[in-house]
Amino acid sequence: MTPTNRDLRDEIRDYWSDRAATFDDDPGHRIDADMVAWQELFRRHLGDAQGRALLDLASGTGEIARLCRSLGFAVTGLDWSEPMLERARAKLPDVTFLQADAERTTLPSASMDVIVTRHLVWTLVEPTSAFAEWFRVLRPGGTLLIVDGDFVSRNLLGRIVQRLLPGGSPDATAAAGAARHKDILSRVHFSAGARADHVAGLLHAAGFDRIDIDTNLAPIHRAQSAQLGWRKSLLRRSEHRYAISATKPLGA
């Protein structure tokens, strides 16, 4: 076998890079009719923006950056995938987007008032070191907001709804993508699913306090329902999805 310096993080970056061209076609990623519901969720946890410096980790095509800019934050986006960043920069030319690994940002200590991330935590290779890094980058009194979920384990309703989803044989490209996703998922820290209490415990160990687990994402799910269709909408509501906000103590 030929020696290689590639690791799991490289594979994760390349997987999302290959999905960049069609990423916004998925209503689960693109923020459209659900914008107001997302704004309400972010205001609930972050308060008024007041021009605070906000870092959008794993910013992808810039949807969360677009949301946060609409709220009045001074937004910086960060992603490791250049194809994702190309789309984010085209969408938001007045926002700064940086290329870096979200687990190793290289940003200055205490440089951000707010850090937000959507659907990143479940892919983390080393969440303990990632949360320590985010703690370092936040200013004392700053807020971290995580939006994520357990997309692996299913409750009874989820298993029933999944059986109702249209079947059929996927084409070769879709099948290869699914196989890559499954392989990557099997090797990340949260391979069995990113449960909110597990994530919250790791945040506490990293030094965060005032940790709030919020599972009231129903307004977002309702706003997405017309685009998703009733089967996928019901499946989404059956999943363990949540927002977690946490604060870096003032004396830290």
From TrEMBL:
Pfam families per the UniProt record, alphabetical: Methyltransf_11 (PF08241)
GO molecular function, one term: S-adenosylmethionine-dependent methyltransferase activity
GO terms of biological process kind: methylation
Gene3D superfamilies the UniProt entry points to: Vaccinia Virus protein VP39 (3.40.50.150)
Residues annotated as domain Methyltransferase type: 55-146
Name of the protein: Methyltransferase domain-containing protein
Transferase recorded as keyword: yes
